[in-house]
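In this supplementary section we document a worked example of the pipeline. Step one takes a protein sequence of length 231 as its only input; no multiple sequence alignment statistics are reported here. Step two produces a three-dimensional model, which step three serialises into structure tokens for compact storage. The input and output of this example are shown verbatim.
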Amino acid sequence: MSKKNNDNKEMFDSISKEYDFINNLITFGAHNKWKKKIVSISKKTNPKKILDLATGTSDIAIELSSIKNCKIIGVDPSSKMLEVGQKKINNLNLNENILLEQGDAEKLKYNNEIFDVVTIGYGVRNFTNLKNSLKEIYRVLKKDGLLIILETSLPSNPLVRLIYNIHTKLYVRIVGKIFSNNPNAYGYLESSAKTFPYGEDFIKILREIKFKDIRSEIKLFGASTIYVAKK
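The serialised model returned by step three reads:
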């Protein structure tokens, strides 16, 4: 495991217990609605097997379990985040629908072309090597399979971007300091959101990996974006 991978794992381990609570505070609960959108897009393909990468505390995997006759595998490098997710799955009696495994997006252990859909919620920007991870995703997706990504982006409107910057620089960090065991983690999450390629820049990278029929949906005036791409 690279140093960056290990650092990210330790960071997410340290914030696992408060992660869901703070995520709701930061997004005012809006992320739950956007995750349901991932499910509605997935459901249209009648998938039988879905890989949820950077599954974290398994919110998306749990939402995906509503799809009939579909198995979900949730993968994350953080064992502590997976522990939180597993407790939720146990409480909801979803063990037959969802399997959680510790793993790295750069080195997926799965065979070629076995997943109908791969989903990622707010995890792509934490990949150590973005292109290598996307190539791995491409490899494990079936032909015409979908990659669905929910990720942060920056609003294009200057006034909205100003409000967004104030929100991330002040509100997010204050929330982190008050409620988190590791306030520095929320500084990292804020800065990584600003350096990650988004919009057309990210779509260009997806095309380089050979994904096709790429579309994007802007959420909250551009603060987040859903990308959908086909193999």
